Amino acid sequence: SIAIKEDDDGIMKSEFTLPTIEGIEFVNYVNEEQLDDVMRLVGQDLSEPYSIFTYRYFLHRWPQLCILAVPTDSEGGDGTEEGTKNRRRPIGCVVCKMDIDDGEPSGDEVVTTTSVENSNNKTNDKGTDQNETQANNGLPNNKIFTGYIGMLAVEHTHRRSGIGTALVQRAIHRMQQMGCQSIRLETEVTNKSAMTLYEDRLGFVREELLKKYYLNWGDAYRLRLWLNA
Fold this sequence. Notes:
alpha+beta, 9-stranded mixed β-sheet, 7 helices, 9 strands, about 30% helix
């Protein structure tokens, strides 16, 4: 559930609990055996194609910020190893990264694997002190970090079941654990379902209108969510 609150400075901030969905397990990205699944999911609705290098840029540097939604039921399995593999095929994913927040859009000055690799398999859905997490990750405490949601996708047959919301909430929670003070993203102006998810359900606010942002000349909104310290 989401609770949007206003702090003493008038800034809207969010508090939320991580939802569970019956029949769905949320798992971490592990290795490139899952790369095809991520590309399949994200590529189904892209207004512009990503190269494999874009996926690897996110997944190699921030594997702990890719979360997959996988069915837990046995539908489609035949008891064989191949049947189990097909049954456990992810039906949703979210892919994120972290940046040093200098007030500008994401660029080359990013938090790399070197500075956060220690949090892989340690950063989970359990509560963790933010300063302790930063220290464990080797992140400098005098920097301000922002998270970035680069990709979110759910198969058409599993939409409107809360999976997208649950994926984003887990990603936000994880980036907050790793020291992020805000989360940014861009989404197409015409993507009403995404705007409803991010603004109405999760508390993101519009920062900027980006004219002709996409290769198809579509406009985008840059959105930001401020996190509680």
